[in-house]
Amino acid sequence: MLFPDDEIDRMGTAAFRELVASTPEAEDAETNAYVTCVADAITGALREQDRGDWEVRVFADDQVNAFALPGRKIGVYQGLLSVAENQHQLATVIGHEVAHVLARHGNERISTRFAAQAGLDLVSAIAGEPSATRQALFGLLGVGTQVGVLLPFSRRQETEADLLGLRLLAQAGFDPEESIALWRNMSAAGGESPPEFLSTHPSSESRIEALEGAMDEARGIAQAARARGLVPRCR
User: Is 97 among the catalytic positions?
Assistant: First the structure.
């Protein structure tokens, strides 16, 4: 981790602002309220230092995808709602993406990529004119097709985000069992052509097996959350 968190946050915010400026947003009030409800439930159950005000946007795009960025930004593409069939499955995706931010995976990847380029102003690079460096930064932060080339997270980072995301959705009172159904839906979507989310977040039976191995603990966390009154009702 070579970069201060506040610099990574500024990069995430700059990337998000560009996406918002270049991508049409969903206009349906019910859709926006639904996605925001799920995202707020996830972020509201975080540790106090991680909560803050997370900005949530829904993009009018059919790709099956979502992302979260440093700086507390969450984006969901409308096409994801055709695969995430209920609030619990949508929470699985949002929890997974928020987990990447909490685990500082963007900082880790940017530090690895730019370790030898001391003094490079990455904030300026990400907000400047299109360039190979700028595209790489968008990908390393975790956003891709609209503005750059998204680079896959490593197997270790993906597993970490899966398991942390499972814990996050359970802490918010969502049903952790639905995470398995979500990943099976993802695998089935599109037949020979997997959704964009899976082209950059590889899915396999090993991913589902890892979730199943953590399910007993997740069930207990969810039950405790519901006993405290955390029962999401996002429709």
Answer: yes
